[in-house]
Amino acid sequence: MMAVRSTLFRRLRRLLLGVILALVLLPTLLIVVYKFVDPPITPLMVIRLFEGESLDKTWVPLDRISSHLVKSVISAEDNLFCEHHGFDGDALWQQIQTWLAGDRPRGASTITMQTAKNIALWPGRDVPRKLIEAWMTPQIELLWSKQRILEVYLNVAEMGPGIYGAEAAAKAYFGKTARQLSPLEGSLIAATLPNPRELFAARPSSYVTSRARKIRRRTDQLGPLLDCARTTS
């Protein structure tokens, strides 16, 4: 009996070690592959498909995405994207203080962290997902350029029910390509990103319109902080 328990324990231990090793190594492998290969699909896309949603996405390189949208997304989601190395220390500290005060943190995800989540992880705020995201984020910053991070993010981010990426969003909401987006249209799409399933760029609520206006003002103020967002359009 003791021998059976010992054998079972060893097998369970090997299985656990294998799972841990896979969780550590597979994200790194994915990051290396996606440095050169465009992600064909993401876990969230698969989940939405199983929920019965359509899948509207068209990959375009960064230089075919309007710089107005690129800069608006940085202004809306991650002001210091061009400066930090994956984590916004000040924002994280503020959220820790909020948590210590007994309030619910609103999150301090950078564009790099969101990219890590989008390419490999499931939705949610559970601890295992956040730990893997934290493991992936500095590796993405180390192995990818800022431009590659923006390119991947802007091609796989959910921008509406069944709509993923800048090209699909531009065509669905404004009937044009991502390259043709105006400053107003870019800011409207960026304004919906906190909740793209409830907020819509083509039929903007007063909240979206107001947020888009703030994003355009912030974009004008950030100046050199947007240098890594330069594209040819």
Description:
The chain has 10 helices and 3 strands, in the order H-H-E-H-H-H-H-H-E-E-H-H-H. The chain is mainly alpha-helical and 233 residues long. The protein has one domain (41-229): Orthogonal Bundle (Penicillin binding protein transpeptidase fold). It has a 3-stranded mixed beta sheet.
Task: Give the SSE layout.
Elements: H1 2-36, H2 43-50, E1 56-57, H3 67-77, H4 89-100, H5 111-120, H6 127-143, H7 146-156, E2 158-160, E3 163-164, H8 166-174, H9 183-192, H10 206-222
Parallel strand pairs: 1-3
Antiparallel strand pairs: 2-3
Helix pairs in contact: 1-6, 3-9, 3-10, 5-6, 5-7, 9-10
Summary?
This protein is mainly alpha-helical and 233 residues long.
| DSSP helical segment count | 10
Alpha-beta classification? mainly alpha
Tell me the CATH superfamily.
Biosynthetic peptidoglycan transglycosylase-like
Helix content: 55-70%
Q: pLDDT under 50 segments (min length 5)?
A: none
End-to-end C-alpha gap: 71 Å
Tell me, what's the shape?
elongated
Radius of gyration: 20 Å
Helix-strand topology string: HHEHHHHHEEHHH
Quick one: CATH class?
Answer: Mainly Alpha
Count of spatially separate domains: 1
CATH architecture label name: Orthogonal Bundle
Nearest-integer average pLDDT: 88
Characterize the quaternary organization of these chains. Answer: single chain
Number of strands: 3
Largest sheet: 3 strands, mixed
The CATH topology assignment is Penicillin binding protein transpeptidase fold
